Structure formats: structure tokens, C-alpha cells
Amino acid sequence: xxxxxHSVDPAIIRGKRLPVCAQAALENDNTREKCARRSSASxxxxxVTIEFPEIPPDMRDQDMIKTLLTxxxxxxxxxxSIAVASPGHGDGIGEPGDAAQVDRTITVEMDEMKYSxxxxxxEPGETIRFEVVNVxxxxxxxxxxTSKTWNGHLGEMQTMMREGMMSARSIHHDRMMEAGMMHDxxxxxxxxxxxxxxxxxxxxxxxxxxFACNVPGHREAGMVGGFRMGQGH
Length: 233
Hints:
By secondary structure, the chain is of the alpha+beta class.
């Protein structure tokens, strides 16, 4: 069974369509057409549609941040009825692993709104060292958790953006330290373009677990991966 909770348009993940935040950073000045992306989550109680506004390619980082936060806030308010908020980390997703007990190492690359690989097979109780590389052009996160923990982590990430602790392309660790928000939890790593980080994690015996980028706007645009749990050694 594939572990990882998704609430985005599957076509975005399969087709690798770049969302507005990536287009704003990557498109040239000749592209000015409207690039709103719609992400729909269908449930028996109704249908939620989220539309992100247009971001011109030459938009400044600060203006881009404001636009992404606005779109993400809208997404959070629309999905509040089906999302359960909780602390951003923990909640039965496993535990930090011992570097001396690592069973294997897996390299994960983060690009604009996608991971490679997107699905990772793990065994119950296995300890894995994830070498995470940001090969994209904007800040990305690798965060092991569930939709519940990610929703709980959203407010922290929005605050970091709003207060200038991070921008679309850079992380300001000194400002994080001053604010006491170091983003140093064992289940995640936040990286600037070109940087490499490490997560060592021991998986639980079961549970719906995945990995996602909680930079505002990224998970909503489809930057989510899943773990496929084996039957044990």
C-alpha cells in the first residue's frame, strides 16, 4: 500500500506541470499569460477548488511571497473542514534514527514541485539515511509526515516567509535563530538551491506516511511523495 496523503490534482503530479511559484522563478519575460493553476479535492460533502493568482516572471521575491501566502491561506481556509491540525512533527510517523544503525542510504532530489524518486519502498522498523539534494532554483523542503502533521506545520512556514526568515530562493538562519524557529526537526530538512542535507529516520510498523515540501504553495501544487511499506524482513 502506498503511504502518503494527497489532496491535489493528480494530473499535476503525473504531468509535472509547473505551478505559479515555479513559473514566476523560471519563465522568461516573453511569457505573460495567465498561469493560474486549479487544484481540486473532491469529497462526498462537496468539491473544493483553489485558484492561485497570476505571478509575472519578473516579480520580486517579496511580492512573490505575499502572493503565495495569500493563495496558501485560501487553500487552508477552504480545506479546514476536512483537515485536522496538529503539531508539525511526530504523531506516530516513526522516530529519529541512529547513524550507527543505518540499513541503507537513499538519495532524494528536489526540483520544482517534484521529488525523484516520488515513491520509496521501506520496511517496518528500517532505518534509512536520506541524502536530500535541492537541484531546483527555489527553496524546497523534505518533510516526513502525514497530511495532519503537514497542516500543523503550515503556520510555522508561513510565519518564516512573512517575517523574512526565508524567501523564495534563500534561507536566513540568523533570523531564524533570533526568532527561535530554527527548523531543525529530525524528520525534515529545508534547503536552498544547490544545497544537500540529511535525514536519518526509523520507520514505524505501519501507518500512512509520506514526504512533502511545506514551503507555502509547494505542497498545494503537488510536491508530495509517498512511502510504500513492505511486509518486513
